[in-house]
Amino acid sequence: MSEPIRLPDLSTAKDYDGPAFSPIYTTTVTVSGGEASHGRASGRARSADGALDLDLRMPAELGGDGRGTNPEQLFAAGLAACFHGALSLVARQAGLHPAEISVNATVGFGRDPRDGGYALHADLVVAWPEVDAAIAARLLEKADSLCPYTKMLAQGTRTTLTLAP
Length: 165
Description:
alpha+beta, N-terminal domain of TfIIb, GMP Synthetase, Chain A, domain 3, three-stranded antiparallel sheet, 4 helices, 5 strands
């Protein structure tokens, strides 16, 4: 018999400490280019701990073979999971049971009209049956202010770019 999955020991009260960003978890994923020498078209994504190891492929809609995961799917999964976690946390703090919550993330990839490059657009749809809409709306707003993915989308994220020696 397997052990039940434990809830993370995260809290809006005790995880913050100090005026500057202080990571409580860090991960690294490396993408190589594969046979096309293009990480998006034929890449391989591997996490440092080996938990993630998958082929990346262009979706058929972008001219690829569609036989692998693409970056937008990975981002949508991370966004939905992170927002679900934030909403579950605030639901529990409000005395509500979050078991029925589901989060649908849709990520669109397209041209950025400002510079002709590419941009993403993300939409989240939350299903939370049997919870009063006004209560849910208040908790969605609170979760939005806590979720690092939605904060990143709204505010941007500090990024460093370094060429390895």
